[in-house]
Amino acid sequence: MNQYSSIAKIAAITMKEEIKETANKFKVLGNQSRIRILLEIADEEKCVHEISEETDQSFSNASHHLKTLRDNRLVDYRKEGRHKYYRIKDDHVLKILQECIDHAGE
Q: Which NCBIfam families does this entry report, sorted A to Z (predicted)?
């Protein structure tokens, strides 16, 4: 095996991991409750209580979905006292959502 075939194998493995990670992100984004949460915090950070009220979800359900979004690096939060204020982690998430919404409207 020459040097180039080794590099190609490494690239293929890396690509497989990226594809796996991408599929996982779409799986996480494929939930209506999570999409509503992301849209709710698109413009400003909010605490779980506000998010649960605005998205008509129980506090527990909203908290569970936020944990999933956080575990998948789609949202971040800051702590203030006993409250956590959630925000979208970066603009890529909003761009993906906007593209999907635009596509659904066609």
A: HTH_metalloreg
